[in-house]
Amino acid sequence: MINRRTPTAGLVPGGTSASVADLYPSNTALYADPALVEGVDYDRRYRRHLIDGQSPQGPTPFVRTTVIAPHGGGIEAGTSQLCLAVAGYHPADLTPTPETGPVHDFWMFEGLRSTGNRELHVTSTHCDDGVARAMCAGSLNVLALHGCTATGRAGLEAGARAVLVGGRNATFRRYLMEEFAAVGIRAVPVPDEEAFAGTAPQNICNRNLLGMGAQLELTTELRRAMFAQGNHTRTEWAANTLPLFWSCVTAARTAIQRLEAGQPAP
Q1: Which of 84, 93, 153, 225 lies 20 to 30 Å from 218, alpha-carbon distance?
Q2: Is 113 within 8 Å of 41 (Cβ atoms)?
Q3: DSSP string, 106-120
Q4: CATH of the domain spanning 2-49+61-261
């Protein structure tokens, strides 16, 4: 199942400040605002893969991992493209990448405006999109992708190229830390007391079958280095990925594969 639109609103590669209050207290409130138009101001894209519970071949299948980007498009630029690629789809045309898979379910909310996308930010603990909630609730694992600024985050210096690793699943976090280190990307664990640690049970990344997922916060500088520079639209960003982008994708996908390999069927 897929929901996809292709408007061409420009992206601003920024992060979200936790100190700035959200305009909308939930996705439901945002969707109810008559001043906003889906497909113009914002978009939602998702893909669910078919599960056949009638197969006589073995245990009833279930979704192991869902990849989400709650603040995609121009809100936290680059996270939409990362979400697609980590799920196993090339962000330019959705072809399976690599061809041999595996592919994962994905969901994203995207800001489409040329400016003012910050107004569309809904913090992860308040994400109540019905499709997002249902997809996460039916998945064993959830990986959420976010963007942030480096200053004041987990002791990072200004301008740092780094990914901050959070969430309630300690094993998933450890695998992510190890795999980012393996591809030469600086990874920093987020202390539990930090506001953006992703450890709140209400955080959308933790609303899965295990009650614990993982959350990645990629700094503005790291995300900028993943794409050829220019005033690109969402579509152009997807077609202008650099090797660093794919290194990040490889790290996340390998961590997911390691996590899934240690989880027996129910």
Answers
A1: 93
A2: yes
A3: EEEEEE--SS-GGGG
A4: 3.40.630.100
